[in-house]
Amino acid sequence: MTQTLHIVGGGMAGSEAAWQAANMGVQVVIHEMRPKVKTFAHQTGNLGEMVCSNSFRSDDDEQNAVGLLHWEMRAANGLIMATADKHRLPAGGALAVDREPFAQTVTENLQRHPNISVSYEEVTTLPDDGHWIFATGPLTSSALGQAIQAETGAEALAFFDAIAPILYADSIDMSQAWMQSRYDKGETEEEQTAYLNCPMTKDQYEAFIDALLAAEKTEFHEGETAGYFDGCLPIEVMAERGRETLRFGPMKPVGLTNAHKPDEKAYAVVQLRRDNKLATLFNIVGFQTKMKYGAQTQVLRMIPGLRDAQFARLGGIHRNTFLNSPTLLDAQMRLKTKPNIRFAGQITGVEGYVESSAMGLLAGRMAAAEILGQDLPEVPQDSAMGALIHHITGGAEAKTFQPMNVNFGLFRPVDGLKGGRRGRKDRYKAYTDRAKTVWSEWIRSFT
Q: Does this model's pTM top 0.85?
């Protein structure tokens, strides 16, 4: 078989799609515009570069839908998960990675694969023939975005994705901060002390909120609107929704005991997570921000323990585009008006590294099967990947379609189980057991 699969975009989804298709015996060309054409958020030309958090979130495959996605990707010989496991950092029950060696390893594995080549140039049109996957992500170039709009006859939707600041560990005052995972979560001492905590009194919290609300913010360009995704809200937007919002969100003080003052209950706690294996860098958890740089340093240094903080990267904000997939894509993620083109990753309306990679995995396998003339069984809806792809290709309401993380709300109910909070543990275990069974059967059916 000599037909080539072209994949536009070398992020999480594009990298995973290329790996899956190449392992099925298809020749793949990855088209990546970086480093020739840069973006606001990317720092390198590496494939699989992480631009926001360094976390793949929960790794619990029995009680968490994201952890279940991890399990399914591992079962499918996923490149992204194998690389994440190789460069894993302590993060309690989460899967966090050392981002630079992670991207380097993804790049090396793809470049070494005999069925994969990489072409570094910008693709600005939607081809009429050939086999293509567009996995250009939230930072799709302006020219390509215009081509997509022209083809679909509908405007691409947009929200704004904010990036959390990263600071140097040796600039943190450990006489005020301490290391502890919430509720001491994790099986080893390293996991149980994976997060750095900065406590706040009520007065300190109120002063911080005042400064946050008054800080100078990044302005939007004319014609742009701020339709944020709720899973990645800037801290200023959360504060604007109510003075206590942050204290019940990323700054919640529960499950933590101040090692310096064990009898004193913090009113709020700012958590930082290790950002590299050397533990020289920490990112502020949940602190995506659109404050201007000068304001960021002033406001963030109000946090106890961060008075003398030095920042390796300040936060930022960028435009994030995605398709109205329920109206534009078929069940195999093909563009209905150009079925030689598939879309994958965050541009399809999934949110997060894991979800984007998962959609890349499916798109790569679907495209490879089509090229090879194979009948690919339908992705089982009761798997995590099936729940996601069903949501974006028809299960969601098109009129209100917004980016979605994987969650058990997308899963079909299991008969005979209790609803509500009390039955949640048994219900989630039933979801994951069922998903593992059907996913394993799906993988075996064509491997």
A: no
